[in-house]
Amino acid sequence: MQVVVPFAAETPKTRLESVLSPVERSTVARAMLTDVVSALVETGHEPTVLSTASLADANGPGLSSLPAAVTVDDRPLTEAVNARLPTTVGETVAVVMADLALATPTALERLFSADADVVIAPGRGGGTNALVVRHPSFRVDYHGASYLDHVRIAREVGASCVSIDSFRLSTDIDEPGDLVEVLLHGDGQAAATLEELGFGLEIDEGRVAVSRSGGVRRQ
Amino acid sequence: MQVVVPFAAETPKTRLESVLSPVERSTVARAMLTDVVSALVETGHEPTVLSTASLADANGPGLSSLPAAVTVDDRPLTEAVNARLPTTVGETVAVVMADLALATPTALERLFSADADVVIAPGRGGGTNALVVRHPSFRVDYHGASYLDHVRIAREVGASCVSIDSFRLSTDIDEPGDLVEVLLHGDGQAAATLEELGFGLEIDEGRVAVSRSGGVRRQ
Q1: What Pfam families does UniProt report for this protein, alphabetically (chains A, B) (predicted)?
Q2: What's A49's domain CATH number?
Q3: pLDDT digits (tens, 9 = 90+) for A78-114
Q4: Of B207, B210, B211, which to mutate for an interface test with A (greatest number of A Cβ within 10 Å)?
């Protein structure tokens, strides 16, 4: 099974701009990428990072220790992923997003071992956070409510399709409120990076929030 | 195993007040309660609804067809639940929140079959959405970041503790943004009720939102 991890190297995580500078967003995005790749390696796979730009050149710290090959493909996400999906029966390709900071080997194993032509780990808000494709006609479309689209596309091409019920894989880190989950449940580089940047839990009634203090906002 | 479903009968779902009238909030809350109880019954258990008031008297539609016994306990949630937790070795009590509109028998079975003294299904934002307790000294504290508190309390009383990785059980329906998940993944009374009230998916780039149209806002 090939495992592909798409990564937007140049302007990552723009929806975190209210709480993180561009360089910080890049640092956090690369920490999450490292956590995802590390969890994948622990499952025994050799992931390939599909990056929109060279990770050495792009804005942000280098990733010399990333345990994965990096392939640069500057096409839009949907196109770049579709170019790597199976074209013949018997091939399997998994696509795992780079911002699943809570991904664990156990959660990923559940994804990989589910028995269907198309296995989807839905993200909150209708996204597709991770995907296993074993059907040569299935293609992705990441625009809009991609979860619903992918279920529909699977049906249209005659591929069996199941969803994986995982909180960890449903949690993509896009918005400031998502950082809470990294601080609550993460134990990798992303959590450590957020703590270094001064983020902490703000505990009140209702859901927990994040606050930031002490961290120098670096440009 | 006893299964308890706490339910705030009188002023349910106040954080939905920007999109639903009081009577509508009560209707949606009772639809979610019905979905949760139905999923529990499908797992072969006989849940007890622990309601803050009689469901016949409280503001909102009656629930004559609810397949569960209803016990009224007007104490605060933490106190009411603690009064029902195991006091002797060998007892097991599960506590499942009434607003887990995506709960399925499969997800609940995973919760019930996990092997530990305390099994927690964390909610988004650090809550405790469902819980199985098999230790006579464990007690709950639902204030603040209850997930972290429950992990700590289990450790303090010497109880083994595991978390269940379930998107469905992590999704409590508290805020307008949560309604998206009901429309995307729900197939019970809660989803049908929201559709009747005019809610639909608003599909754009990024996460899917909800919009409301056609529904008459009833008081």
Answers
A1: CofC (PF01983)
A2: 3.90.550.10
A3: 999 999 999 999 999 999 999 999 999 999 999 999 9
A4: B207
